[in-house]
Design brief:
Helix content is 44%, strand content 23%. It has helices at residues 2-23, 28-31, 35-42, 46-49, 66-74, 96-100; strands at 53-60, 78-83, 86-92, 105-110. Strands 2-3-1-4 form a four-stranded antiparallel beta sheet.
């Protein structure tokens, strides 16, 4: 009886783990997007910024390959500078979701304006 209960408990644990893993797939890209960027795209500014380009920082899993750069370009992303796996870029607001879904993109952040004080 103890072996039977343990087998059911193990099966239940596996099913729960698989269900929670699959349940996160739909919104996984949202976790990659900075809240300020998500608000700019989905919020009240979406209508005015839909045709505009946004300045962003993109954190990647590794420095970009030529194929990865081309994929970004296909989504309308213009890479401005690269420092290892960190990229500064300009992208259309409507491309944020698709860029965030790319497997090599770890995080997207809306650039912040910084003023240098003497």
């Amino acid at each position: 009886m103890l072996k039977f209960s343990f087998a059911w408990l193990l099966l239940l644990a596996i099913l729960i783990a698989c269900a929670s893993h699959n349940g996160n797939r739909g919104g996984a890209w949202e976790k990659k997007v900075d809240p300020r960027l998500r608000t700019a795209v989905q919020g009240g500014q979406a209508q005015t910024q839909a045709a505009q380009n946004l300045q962003v920082l993109i954190k990647c899993s590794a420095p970009l390959s030529m194929e990865q750069k081309q994929k970004l370009l296909d989504h309308g992303v213009r890479v401005q500078a690269e420092a290892g796996a960190i990229v500064t870029a300009v992208l259309p607001a409507q491309a944020v979701t698709e860029v965030a879904k790319l497997d090599y993109v770890i995080y997207l952040e809306l650039s912040k304006e910084r003023k240098i004080q003497p």
